[in-house]
Each structure stands twice: as structure tokens, then as C-alpha cells.
Amino acid sequence: MEFRHGLRTNEIESGEKTYLSAKTPLVVLGAAPINMGDMSCINQPILIQNITEATKYFGGVNKIEGFNISEVLYSAFQLFGVGPVLCINVLDPKKHSAVEVLTEVIVKNGMAKIEKVGIIPSELILKKGGTEESIEASTYEISFDSNGYLEIYFEDLTLTSIDGSIKVLNPTLITSQDIIGKVDINTLKKEGLELIDEIFTKYSVIPCAGIAPGYTHDNELRTIMNTKFQSINSGKWKSVIIADIPETIKYGEAIKWKKDNNAIDPEQLLYYGMGVLGNNILHLSTLVACELLRGNMENDGVPCDSPSNKNAKISKVVYKDEDGNYQDLNLDEKQAELLNENGINTAIQTPGGLVFWGNRTSAFQPGGTTEKKDIWIHSKRMIQFICNTIGINNQNEVDKKMTKTRAIAIRDNLNQWLAGLKSQEKILGGRVEFRAIDNPGENIAGGKFVWYIVHGDVPIGENLEFNVKNSSEFAIEIYEG
């Protein structure tokens, strides 16, 4: 033993741990109006926590027609007041754009407006109307209005018209393969859904839900997206996706579409109908994802509630007919119930307003699974939350000496966390055991240790019944007093 003379102190590990949960942003893949923000935001995860960041990267939070990421930012920050939102824009100007000619665009009081979305300012070529005389970029300024239209302000107030050309982003050129993405065989650069595995590495966050509004009707995309979100970072983190039935599907065809396209999965929430607010047409997947974020915020990050019967922030629900016109759905509770019975959720008008309606994942249907954790939205999200939280708080236990004291400390810390959730009425109860049956000697000698965890989530009051009886027992009160 080393000889020492004097006093000193040492820090020792207590084994006690306070459980923390990661931020859970909504993740959206698709097209963003990067022409209004940062043109470099292509195939990289961008975390947007407020309107300032949305403006910096994507030009703001107005709904720009044709760009599903702007729809999500508008819904999250303007309608629901929630965040963060993690955006993966796959729209690439090199592939998804076209050059168009400008002819006799009117200039009034030194200002011209080009009523087209997606114009790339750096690609503007302007000439004085009816001439070949170029207009230098230093002689005008540009901005975008709330619709995403380009406004040009000229120093020369004598201009009456301009000609030239513009390069315009075209999100309709995006295919499901662009969103599915790939890993470049030479550079190993990831695109599309392959970027999901970079989210935690870059931001230390775990997706609340994944959406790609306007694209998830594609079977291959929806299936691959489902797999990616339930096995993030090789299965370390888990999340659900939210998909839409195509807007052209009629009510009577919705159940058949679901079955024909095998849109059946415990980690998938499926919605029918499109929402309308003012002049905006919004995907229900967008709105429900925002409600999940709102519910998380209300419950301290714990996804213990259902989105059903919560305000949808829209005025009506529609579908698109054969002529391309939107028609009101006006589903009543009985009609919505038939969809719910088949694992399809929607939105309906109730005495409390227009609300989301349905508590079940797409795995729920007659003849389908009856496993509780796989058919209830809140149950699936709660078990994913518990798994994710255990993982994020015990990663540092890997490769430490697993003494009996450490194994018991891990058990006790987990039990304390579950007890906290119970006291907050976020679960009915839970317990953790470190059992001999799960840990035979050969496993322990091989470095494998197992903890057995069981919990009960708070049930959703989906079917409430009040039995009311008319009785004569109170008639005698007429003679009293």
C-alpha cells in the first residue's frame, strides 16, 4: 500500500441515476421551398425549433403550394404552436427544376411580381421589356410574398415591363425513389430515408413520428419508411409513421384500398381524408403528427394519450372526386366507426368541434392481431417510449464491470423511474426484475445480462356507456317537507 500522511477526499459512484428522455421532434421528408431560404439544404437533416430557423432555412412558415415540408412547418408553428420539426428535403434543383421564359411581365411603380412558386433568385435573367438590354442584379432587390411568389423592386422607376428567364423548382418531379433514397457506393453519402440514422448522431433526438405527406400512398415507400422508423440506428430507437390514404379514394373504397395495398402494420397510423382551413388543403398525417407533438408537450414528453377526439384545427374534411374537385366528406360517428373498426382513423364533426377520430394502429382489423401493444396508438407509442428511454439512459452501462451491485442498481433505478410515471398517472404501474431464470450462468459468463420489465399503460376510454333508469322511488318526495 502506498504510504500517505494527511487528509484527502475522493468521489465515489453512488449507482443512483435520474432518468432523462430525449427530445422527440416530428420528422418530415419531402420537398421544401429552399429557393426562399438556404439552397444547400438538400438531403441533410435540419432541426427547426422556431419560426426564425424555419425562415433561415426554408423561407418561413407559410404554406407554399406543392411543398409538403412548408405544409408541416405551417401546421406545427402556426396552427398547433409545437416543435421541433426535423426536415429532410430531397428536392434537388439539379434534378427537380426547369427553366421558363418570361415575356412582358408588368412593372408598376418599380415593382414586378412573378406569380409562380419555386423561383431560384440566383438564376434570374432579366431584360428590359421588348429589348435585349440586360438588367443588372445590383439594380434591383427581391423578396417573396406569403404565397411564395417572387417580388422584384427596381431602382429604375421608368420600367414598364420585363422579359427574361427563370429557373423554377418543381416538386412534382420528386418520385418515391427520391424519398426512399440510397447510400452512394463511392462516397457513402446518404440520401432520403437513409438519413434517419444520422438524426440521433447529429442532434441527440429521437423521432416522435415520421411523415411524408403526399407520398405515403406509395406501397414501396410506405413499407420501407415503416421499417426504417421502427429500427433506427440498427434497432436502438423506435418510432411510428403516419400515412394517408390517397385523397382520390371515396369513403366506400377506403377499407378495400387498405387491404389491397397491405397498409397493415403496428407501427403505422393510417388516416383517411384531407383537412381544409381557409384556402389550405392539409394532409391529416401532418395534422395528427402535430397533435402527437402537442400531446407530448402536455404530458412532459410522455406519449401516454391518444390523438383521438382532439381538435384537428380545420374547418372540414374532404376528398378529391374524378374531376379533380374537392368534395365535403361530413362523416358521422357511425361512418367513422366503420373505418376505425378496420384500423383507419379520420376526422369528424362533434359537439366539441372538428376532431380526429380513432385510437387504433393500422394493424387493427377484423381477423387481425389482438395484441394490445400493437393495436392501440397510445400503447404502441408508450412501449416505444419506454424502450427508447431505457436505451438512452443505460448506454453508458455497456462494457462496465457487471457486478451484482451494478445489476441491482440498474434494476432499482428503472423501478424508481417507473414509480414516478405511475405517481404522475402516466402508467398504471410497472416493475423491473433481475431474475435468475433470465440470466443462466453461461450467459453471464458470456457477458449477456437481461432485466425483465413489465408495465401497464393507462387505458383509453373509447367506449363509454351510461345506463339510465326511470324510477318511481323518488315520487314519495312529493309528500315530504
Describe the protein in words:
It is a single chain. 26% of the residues lie in helices and 21% in strands. The chain has helices at residues 51-58, 68-80, 176-180, 199-203, 219-229, 232-235, 254-260, 284-298, 333-341, 372-375, 377-394, 404-423, 441-445; strands at 26-30, 45-48, 85-89, 97-106, 111-114, 125-128, 140-144, 150-154, 161-169, 209-211, 240-244, 268-271, 274-277, 280-283, 316-320, 326-328, 346-350, 353-357, 427-433, 452-457. The N and C termini lie far apart (93 Å). The model has no long low-confidence stretch (mean pLDDT 95). Helix 2 packs across helix 8 (284-298). The radius of gyration is 28 Å and the shape is globular. The longest helix is centred in the last third of the chain and has 20 residues, at 404-423. Strand 15 and strand 16 form a beta hairpin. It contains 13 helices and 20 strands. By secondary structure, the protein is of the alpha+beta class. Strands 2-3-1-10-11-12 form a 6-stranded mixed β-sheet, with helices on both faces. A 4-stranded antiparallel β-sheet has the order 14-13-15-16.
Task: Output the number of helix runs.
Answer: 13
- Secondary-structure-derived class: alpha+beta
**Helicity level:** 25-40%
Low-confidence stretches: none
- Largest sheet entry: 6 strands, mixed
In percent, how much strand structure appears in the residues? 15-25%
- Which of globular, elongated, flat, extended, rod-shaped describes the shape? globular
Distance between the termini: 93 Å
Give the overall pLDDT as a whole number.
95
**How many strands appear in the DSSP assignment?**
20
Q: How are the strands ordered across the major sheet?
A: 2-3-1-10-11-12
Q: Radius of gyration, Cα only, in angstroms? A: 28 Å
Q: Quaternary arrangement of the chains shown?
A: single chain
